[in-house]
Amino acid sequence: MILWWIKKDFRVSDNPALSHALQADEPVLAIFILEPSAMQALDTSARHVDAQLQAFKYLRRVVRACGGECCLIHDEVIPALDRLKDLAPQLSSITSHEEIGFLRTYERDKAVQRWCDKHAVIWTELAQTGVIRRLRDRDKRTELWREWMSDGPLVAPTDDKLRALRVPEPIMALWPGHQRRWSARDYGCKQATPLTETATRKCQPVSEVSARKVLRDFLDHRSIAYSGGISSPNTAFRAGSRLSVHLAWGTITGREVYQHITDRLAELKDDNSVQSKQLKKSLRAFLSRLHWRDHFIQRLESAPDMELRPLNTAYEALSTNDNAEYLDAWIAGRTGFPMVDACIRCAHTTGFLNFRMRCLITSTAVHSLRLDWRDILWPMAQWWTDYEPGIHVAQLQMQSGVVGINTLRVYSPAKQMADHDPDARFIRRWIPELADVPVETILSHQANPTSAYIQPLVNWSEATAAMKADYYAIRRSAVTKKLAEGVLDKHGSRKPASARKRTSGRRSKKTSANTA
């Protein structure tokens, strides 16, 4: 008997772990293990648990429609495996995908391997993304990524194959109330979050069928606005692909999305109309984002302790502000910077915020309020319905500047409002107390605070100037530069070999502060 350990791969299409399990002529146990420790982890919120339960519910419906069955076990993984082995002594192998997570899942998976060794069970982990396990040479990553993406998605198993997914009654009995328990609350998820019932309803639905609808809508209607439309929080909800939540929970794969995008570009190859040119520009920009997504997750795969320390450890010397009042105000969206507060309150309710605005709220926390990036790591993780550990920690470190190989970008809330919400439409939606305040007053509140809104926690110009002075004192040191070389070698992006040849000999631009 084979166990298909379901974990963030809630789909039947392009599922290497499922396809591998069904290759053998044996019964397959399809089990989703909902770990109590995961629900109480600092990066978990009820919206994450509900997303997984929603995705699993649809997966189970598909499997049952074919005559198969899936089961949920609410327990830690090792005790769950012990119970499964007791009830199914013939269990001989486990198949799952390679999960890239924080130290909690990293240590759990090592414990699973020890359990398998002890019980003579073969555990096969298969890639479901373009992240390469145990990558030895970063120079080869782009080539390997393209090979993976171009290999084409796996077809969904036939109904006859899915009928091999069976759950004997004694094992199904491990899931009491399986017809009605479909929310985080049912399984005791008590992680403190700003979520309300209304907020939960505003989150994207998460299922394989929802993923396909979102992809089709993006390809047929919304993608033309992607390039140029994803920077503003007013337009990003429509212009963005909105596939990130499905990629995060495995209701679709990046490889399948890549295939659809490249097919669409092939269709448009000979169409040189103005509309087609804009659409091709947007689709190419989106393909680039798919590549960057796996690039950043690769960092966590290569450095699983990223939650504890910066990739460039020299920045441990950067002084931070251990101010609980500042942290609480930032979490609540009450920093006194209207654009920042509107973004945070939007995240609380919708579980989504576009990339540029995520950079803004991170920059404000770290560069203006001088909070340690680790202090905002877990609270912010809880907000996102599309939470992906590798993306989250890699971007948080990069935007904070502690990777040390990129331009330091310090985001001005007033400039972001002027550029991307000039009529204060977004701000007034999420901060109703500013509904009748003139736009000019809102825009100038950062530099000239008025009684129209709460006072900024800090003087933005003075605070960021002091931070940059401290930051560059560290960055200029020989030790920091030496460490940065190691970070670049292990974690830096690479151009394809052909591009490197074209640019060899050119002098690179000097890295400097950038106030966006």
General description of the model:
By secondary structure, the protein is mainly alpha-helical. It folds into 3 domains: 2-144 and 165-174, 3-Layer(aba) Sandwich (Rossmann fold); 207-301, Serine Threonine Protein Phosphatase 5, Tetratricopeptide repeat (Alpha Horseshoe), CATH 1.25.40; 313-502, DNA Cyclobutane Dipyrimidine Photolyase, subunit A, domain 3 (Orthogonal Bundle). The protein is built from 26 helices and 7 strands. The strands form 2 sheets. Strands 3-2-1-4-5 form a 5-stranded parallel β-sheet, with helices on both faces. Helix 18 (355-368) crosses helix 20 (389-400). The radius of gyration is 24 Å and the shape is globular.
- Fraction of residues in H or I helices: 40-55%
- Architecture (CATH level 2) name of the largest domain: Orthogonal Bundle
Task: Kindly report the average pLDDT value.
Answer: 92
Helix/strand-derived class? mainly alpha
Extended strand count? 7
Strand order of the largest sheet: 3-2-1-4-5
What sort of overall outline do the alpha carbons produce when their principal axes are compared?
globular
User: Could you name the ranges where pLDDT drops below 50 across 5 or more consecutive residues?
Assistant: 497-512
Portion in beta strands: 5-15%
Kindly report how far apart the N and C termini lie: 57 Å
- Looking at how many chains there are and whether they match, the oligomeric state comes to single chain
Rg calc? 24 Å
CATH topology of the largest domain: DNA Cyclobutane Dipyrimidine Photolyase, subunit A, domain 3
- CATH class category name of the largest domain: Mainly Alpha
